[in-house]
Amino acid sequence: MLFIKLFKESAFFAWGSVVANKLRTLLTLLGITIGIFAIISVFSVVDALEKSIRGSIASLGENVVYIQKWPWEFGSDYPWWRYINRPTPRVSELDEIMRRTQILDAVVFTASTSRTVEFGNRSMERITILTASHDYDKIRSFEIGNGRYFSPTESFNGRNVALIGANIAQNLFNEVDPVGKIIKIFGRNIEVIGVFTQEGDDIFGNSHDDLVLLPVTFVNSFIDVNSDRYNPAILAKGRENFDNDELIDELRGTMRSIRRIKPTADDNFALNQASLLSTQFDNVFSVLKIAGWIIGGFSILVGGFGIANIMFVSVKERTNIIGIQKALGAKNYFILFQFLTEAVLLSLMGGIIGLVMVFGISWLATSILGMNLMLSMKNIMLGINVSVIIGLIAGFVPAWSAARLDPVEAIRTGL
Length: 415
What we know:
Elements: H1 2-20, H2 22-60, E1 64-68, H3 91-100, E2 104-119, E3 122-132, H4 136-139, E4 144-147, H5 152-157, E5 161-164, H6 166-173, E6 182-185, E7 188-196, E8 211-215, H7 216-219, E9 233-238, H8 244-258, E10 270-273, H9 274-317, H10 319-327, H11 332-367, H12 377-403, H13 407-414
Helix pairs in contact: 1-11, 2-9, 2-11, 2-12, 3-8, 9-11, 9-12, 10-13, 11-12
């Protein structure tokens, strides 16, 4: 009860001081407002970017291992010369992996290129053409909104059938049902048997919306899908009771055996997984957040000095009031708490204004620009906590000096 009474009285004095000096209060809040706005804005953007990227990484398959020529690495010191002469994954290696590996749930060969897709007098250029073996639906997550997936006979015998993305269906066929229609790719007639459900944009370009999926046995009959120009890869997914480390060890041994690599020689293939990308992006996110603290930190520092300066002025202006309060029996902790409350109130007001500005920018970015930007509860609490801490730090010395004033000297000074 004593604390509640103390807080109410301190808040009353603090609010009275803030209202009595509106212009001074506004100028004092500016530094804190800009600082909180800068920090929370950066954090909100990073959170939105992180959510988008992690969603895209998850779409690659968290328990899927990619056998490729090039490892997923970043940086200016990427040793490309070590990998340039490596052989690419081959369709024939897919069969050997299936035969020799016992812990696989699914394995698929993929290759991709870009071609023009035609239907009647309409066409779409630079469409991604993905060719894959039959287990593609077990590796990648997608839904078919209209039609069906490849049958085993169509996949293994190389039938000229295709699944197309929602955007392709819309642009080439308008309101006409694409299923059963004939499109032309690679100069060949291909029957559409299914349409992928609309997925939306993906930061890595992994959406099926602008993609045509063809059986690899069909495409391999007229182009060499093993060629480096088509980015061939083998995607392997382990059974549920095996983790990725076990799968990688198994695949490494199998690939070295298939390619007859000597025990002392290095691998001539890369085993990539989504966690490698997550680790790389974790470093990027950390740097961006540090940059946000640095950018906003300077403004908050200036704002903190501003609050401290105003609090010293406030103590000077109310010296005789402090003396009267102490003469009437007010304890040092009451005076200390009173001025600390005022400093925290000032800082908190600045922080809340900064958060409101971030919310406004986020709303505009989401509603007008279509960006998935939002002010999370975590960032709101961060902004409030930082504001309170800055207020406590900036207001402590002025509050301490006010609490230690001699009542007689304080009353005499104010006269």
